[in-house]
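Model it.
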Amino acid sequence: MTAGFRATPVSRITAGSRVPVGFRAAAGLVALTAVTAAACSSGSTGPRLKVTGAYVPRPASPDVAAAYFTVTDSGDTGDELTGVTADVSAQAMMHRSSGRTMRMVDRVPVPAHGRLTFAPGGYHVMLEHPTRSLREGDHVRLTLRFRRSASITVDAPVEPVGYRPGASP
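Modeled.
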């Protein structure tokens, strides 16, 4: 220790305490780092999800229907779609088609600042054994569940067979 200086425990430092310059500099650096880290984390956001374009083409068979939609994440963190339920079916299963194969999937990533599209020929929801006949103009309530975000419920109109959003009639 240097002459004339008596160490003061950190818990007893007050405005008038004599604190070594090096200690004050280190304390200032720690405080600055904490403020900078807080500023960086406060500017980022978790997933911010929105579901649009939901629809169900009128089924060709009374035993199965498909549902399509787009999930957009405008947040800084991605999420995962972990399941879908429908008010017209006890079994709503997510699938991915690729060429002539179709396989069931348990979860589908939703990228940060990106989108996940469920569309014919790719990801889709199979609605097994609908509890009522689905006709054009009817509506199906879909509830999408996510790993991080709250569930989102959307209204999906039943559209004509072969309907494609944005296509000319």
